User: What shape does this take?
Amino acid sequence: MTLYQNLADVIGARIEQGLYLPGDRLPSVRALSVEHGVSLSTVQQAYRHLEDQGLATPRPKSGYFVPAARQAPALPNVIRNAQRPVEVSQWDQVLEQIGGEPSEKLIQLGRGRPDISSPTLKPLLRSLSRLGRRQDLNTLTYGNIYGDIGLREQISRLMLDSGCQIPATEIVVTTGCHEALSAAIRALCEPGDIVAVDSPSFHGVMQALKGFGMKALELPSDPLTGISLEALELALEQWPIKAIQLTPTCNSPLGYIMPEANKRALLTLAQRYDVAIIEDDVYGELAYRYPRPRTIKSFDEDGRVLLCSSFSKTLAPGMRVGWIAPGRYLDRVLHMKYMGTGATAQLPQLALAEFISGGHYEPHLRRMRAQYQRSRDVMIEWIARYFPAGVKVSQPQGSFMIWVEMPEGFDSHRLNRTLASQGIQIATGSIFSAAGKYRNCLRMNYASKPSAPIEQAVRAVGEAVAAQMAES
Assistant: This one.
């Protein structure tokens, strides 16, 4: 890390800790040069870096200031979905989202990808390289269907932070969280069965239900507290629901953290109606508060919660390593995994086990949580500045996704087509619904550190939204 980046991080941390409040004047270039023993040009570069991140703003002949706080946009509405099961659609829109070739020219605001440029990932790359050079045949074998025992032991230790005490023998490594969720669904349900889901919900789960011939019953979710327990109880009374699938901690796309009391109440409902819970915790370790929130699984005493997660959002999606703690359904999940991919690739598992045991994982998480929280604040500021008045915006409590709601009748698919000509892509809201709701919404990614190109892309999205709203 360069001197100016180091200095920018120090000043940024002071701003986040409240040592400098919105509107406060920041130390002069000369004062910081003396305090830190660096050149004036280094301080100026640091301030430009903070300016790009939205943490400092220059005033002619006055110096740099902490930007004044703007009034946050209103939260998205709670959509009262029709309480009936539906067949999942939207595959064409999902394929449009994920099917394109990676391109440096495309500013991808829609994909659920973390920032993989952090220097804290270098030890992982070194582990991969070192293991490859050893010419150890163990990296070329099928491996255990459960996954590498060394990695499972590390995952077991990491789960303690979420309140879970799960032995390594009860954990199955999967090819990403997507396989964990798919195996859980297939282990519990048959074609034609009904699965209750939070709404909006992860499009991967929606498409898994579609592929397996199952139906989704969408439950309204509050942008701050998550799934409506009243709606869930009514649904359980009316329909033969086989499983409840949700992302209660750092939800994507809304970003909420379900209160602990609600998590306990949801588990109580599942016990009363004898229904399994598939808990997606892929973003859980990216909660901005510490200690991280407890999982529903941590309260589970009869093994009805299948906890799914991965390293795709905390480290790098290209590792394709996830896991599932399936409780009483272990044998069924193992069978589904065997039917799907069999054993998971050995090399990334061994590298991840080495990365975690070497003490590199927690420092990386701390760095990324702080970065994502700063980026969230900047993204909300940009949306307030560049989008038309009246749009509603989520207030993510973790992760790196934000949800924007335009007025009814707005078409985010048309918006995406307009943006494509400018080399920008967002995620259209309808892919997060089984029935194609939320067409007037979009999801954007703020994982990368704020920069001028990203700000320009957000501005272009806001201007395109305003132009489309004006036409209609």
About this structure: The chain has three domains: 3-65, 88-117+363-471, 121-360. The CA atoms of residues 175 and 341 lie 8 Å apart.
